[in-house]
Specification:
- The structure is a single chain.
- The chain is of the alpha/beta class.
- The protein has a domain of 230 residues: 3-Layer(aba) Sandwich (Rossmann fold).
- Helices cover 40% and strands 16% of the residues.
- It is built from 11 helices and 13 strands.
- A 7-stranded parallel β-sheet has the order 3-2-1-4-5-6-11, sandwiched between helices. It has a two-stranded parallel sheet with strand order 7-10. The protein has a two-stranded parallel sheet with strand order 8-13.
- The two termini are 31 Å apart.
Length: 336
């Protein structure tokens, strides 16, 4: 198989990476995944190991000799490996910064050598505390204090973006940056602070749905299958390199409304309970009231727009969580 048809996904055993791997395999491409399973799950990709076009490497992306081998073999790298989730960021800020920046530096340095196409997943967090919505890719960033651990993630991801664009400017490395806005769907886990699977699990178990703050903060949630199509389209287009794209839904919902909607769709008797942010995350946490993307740029570039509604997203998550809670899926939390 040609090098251009061989894809490497860092963090490919994670939530988004495992969906991306399946879609690329279905399109006839060869897929290699590297993941240390610190937040990814082997069960997310275990069934793929029977496919001769798939290979999983359980290792860290800072293993430079292994990464050299993998990147020499492939034409495209989807760099998804990262620290994930608000809770992990608050509890392990050193690991968060190290994991994000060091991994991206290795990927970009080797991509420069082997001329790989690279997609870097960034985050809506880089917009910081800006109150200008919807967020456009060229907007100014409003950073929080370095005394607030929450902003370590945003700053590390912003540094990734600066490094990637520097490689584009100096070396014309074909790299595209994607800022993700609350990707959700089947196989997403709740233990790192992901709100939709957490609410769904609580509702199905008849527990209180725990909402942080006053619940009036709003977000937009995008189905993982829509996100995967965006990632692939931006790389395959060939004319999106050297640019940044928001990827997310524009259907805004408050967190309290989200909790109420999940209770209704699951037919649960659960109650909604508000707790202060300090109780959930400790000191050093700040939150934003609204976070809405402008998706004009990606619509013009590759004609992409989300197709799943919030109700459809919830239905998909409910079906998967029900299966897992009933023993229909393996819960794998092995960490290396």
């Amino acid at each position: 198989m040609e090098r251009d048809e061989h894809v490497l996904i860092t963090g490919g055993a994670g939530f988004i990476g495992s969906h991306l791997a399946r879609t690329l395999l279905a399109s006839g491409r060869r897929v290699s995944v590297i993941d240390n399973l610190s937040t990814g799950l082997h069960s997310n990709v275990a069934d793929l190991e029977e496919n001769p076009n798939f290979r999983l490497y359980v290792d860290t992306i800072t293993d430079v000799p292994l990464m050299q081998k993998l990147m020499l073999e492939c034409g495209t790298v989807y760099h998804l490996a990262s620290a994930v989730g608000v809770r992990l960021i608050m509890e392990q800020p050193v690991a968060t910064i190290d994991t994000i920046y060091q991994g991206t530096e290795v990927v970009l340095r080797l991509a420069r050598r082997y001329r790989n196409r690279v997609l870097i997943t960034s985050t809506s967090e880089v917009y910081g505390k800006s109150e200008k919505v919807p967020y456009c890719e060229d907007d100014d960033r409003v950073e929080g204090s370095t005394m607030k651990h929450r902003w370590a993630y945003a700053c590390a991801k912003a540094l990734d973006e600066f490094l990637a664009l520097a490689h584009w400017k100096e070396n014309r490395l074909p790299v595209v940056i994607v800022r993700l806005f609350n990707t959700v769907g089947p196989r997403q886990r709740s233990q790192y602070g992901m709100v939709v699977p957490r609410f769904v699990e609580q509702a199905l178990k008849g527990e209180d749905l725990v909402v942080h703050g006053d619940g009036e903060q709003s977000r937009c949630f995008c189905h993982v299958q829509d996100v995967v199509q965006a990632l692939i389209s931006l790389v395959d287009a060939g004319n999106c390199f050297g640019n940044i794209f928001n990827v997310g839904s524009t259907e805004e919902i408050s967190i309290r409304q989200l909790a109420e909607k999940i209770v209704k769709q699951t037919g649960s008797d659960s109650q909604i309970r508000l707790i202060p942010y300090s109780e959930a995350y400790g000191d050093g946490f700040e939150d934003m009231r609204r976070r809405i993307p402008s998706i004009d740029r990606i619509q013009k570039a590759v004609n992409w727009t989300p197709t799943y509604s919030m109700s459809e997203i919830i239905d998909d998550v409910v079906a998967e969580v029900k299966s897992r809670l009933s023993g229909g899926a393996v819960e794998d939390t092995v960490s290396f």
